[in-house]
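Notes on consecutive records. When two proteins share a document, each keeps its own sequence and its own token line. Never mix them. Below: protein one.
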Amino acid sequence: MFQTEYGFVLPKGYVDEDGSLHRDGIMRLATAADEILPLRDPRVQSNSAYLTLIVLSRVITKLGELKDVNPRIIEGLFASDLAYLQEFYMKINGDGSTHLQAKCPKCEHQFEVDIFPGE
């Protein structure tokens, strides 16, 4: 079966206004609309860096116990969590896998590494 949703755990986590920490989430594969429609948003037109925030808010379907993941939530992430999500997005929307081929520098044994263990 084709996988369209991937679990993740943020390195630090989102802290909501009540002080609750939200780290576990689900990201779905992006559609063309997820990348094209935000280009019409005035926030993106005035600041292209905002595109990332809107796209992530569209593809993250769950983050902890939050009822809605919106651009304001993504704005409130720690920089390391945002970087993690951007890398995760690129990986799952590239080849759909969180695994990379690696080689031991000493014995040159090749093996597979999950760059997002636990997902």
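Protein two starts on the next line and is unrelated to protein one.
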Amino acid sequence: MDNRKVINDVLVHLFNEILQLEEEAIITEEFKDITNNDMHIMEAVGLDGGNMSSIAAKLKVTVGSLTTSMNGLVNKGYTVRKRSETDRRVVFIFLTEKGKKAYFHHAEFHEQMTDAVMNELDEEEIKVLVKTLHGLTGFFRQYEKK
């Protein structure tokens, strides 16, 4: 089989499998009221919080789109909003204790995934993989700008 086809097939299947596995690993009985998208929003909020504009920029969405999702996370008790004391137009978002628990649950999945890959590779293979992943990242960033 042509190497280009193998690489393409592996990347497409891997992307789809990661999305499905992540959803199964993250959306447990405890977190059944959120989606993968919700979890990624909480990841973008992070442990230190942030303002709506910076979170939207991380996610590459508009503030308006983020507002809709954030309303759901606030209503479900995963995040809270706080207006800036100095500029009332600025809204900061922070994870609640429930949100932090979900955040760490999500981080644990990613840690397990990374450990599983690294445990299969020696140092040289890890260097090649990192270089390859940086190359893919560069491609996707350039493609996005077109």
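For the record: The chain has a mean pLDDT of 92.
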